[in-house]
Design a protein that fits this description.
Layout lengths: L21 E6 L3 H16 L3 E7 L15 E3 L10 E5 L4 H13 L7 E2 L4 E2 L4 E2 L4 E2 L4 E2 L4 E2 L4 E2 L3 E2 L4 E2 L4 E2 L4 E2 L4 E2 L4 E2 L4 E2 L4 E2 L4 E2 L4 E2 L8 E3 L4 E3 L1
Length: 229
């Protein structure tokens, strides 16, 4: 049986589903989830690993108007994980990630890391569980990346701590010793000086230049970054 291609990418040399491949479901069918599907395809091209069953999402019309081969298996709120199923986090919103991860793990869901084959990770870095890492990401020396962190195509400097559910968007400057606390969100092209602490639930806007610590729940934008309500 050929592996189902749900990404719309032309894989003319479709692989056979190996008996050793594990069934995986992506949680969330939005843009992030569909990108995770692409990453799984890339992983499988290098080494057949995952048999992608489809997506779960509470929006029944999440794929309306999109390519027909995207498969919605059911809702997140009603899904009962099976023993042989693995899950990948396909949601970028930190707060939603936490809610969904708590719900499904309480039911026994097993989340795994999906790391694009082109990502570079220092051997001294420590990774949690449920992490999503995009193409071109780089994790530096002695970094600590905790559970359910999403790192898009960006470079993370040395000695950085990223706490659970945080999201780092593309082309950011996360310099040495930065500490991103739980559920923080760093938008594209934001950068920060070494040692900066970004508080819980803080939002750093697109292109912001952060020169000092950002308090929890603050929303900062601009150069230099300033707080806005």
């Amino acid at each position: 049986m050929q592996q189902q291609n749900i990404t719309g990418i032309d894989f003319s040399n479709s692989m056979k589903v190996s008996k050793t491949m594990k069934d995986i479901i992506i949680v969330g069918g939005g843009g992030c989830g569909r990108e995770v599907a692409d990453f799984i395809e890339c992983i499988n091209k290098a080494e057949p690993t995952w048999n992608l069953l489809g997506f779960i999402d509470d929006n029944e019309e999440i794929f309306k108007g999109r390519r027909e081969n995207l498969k919605l298996l059911g809702s997140i709120k009603d899904w009962q994980p099976k023993e042989n199923e693995y899950f990948a986090m396909g949601i970028a919103s930190p707060q939603v990630k936490e809610t969904v991860a708590d719900l499904l793990t309480a039911r026994g869901a097993k989340f795994v890391n999906i790391i694009h084959p082109t990502a570079l990770i220092s051997s001294s870095a420590k990774l949690g569980n449920g992490i999503i890492m995009y193409s071109g990401a780089k994790i530096g020396s002695d970094d600590v990346i905790k559970d359910f962190v999403t790192i898009q195509s960006t470079i993370i400097g040395h000695d950085v701590i990223i706490e659970p559910y945080a999201t780092v968007s593309s082309s950011c400057g996360i310099t040495g010793g930065v500490h991103l606390k739980k559920r923080s969100f760093i938008a594209d092209h934001a950068c920060m000086v070494p040692g900066t602490v970004i508080g819980e639930d803080a939002y750093v806007g697109i292109g912001a230049v952060v020169l000092k610590d950002v308090p929890g729940t603050a929303r900062v934008f601009g150069n230099p970054a300033r707080a806005y309500k």
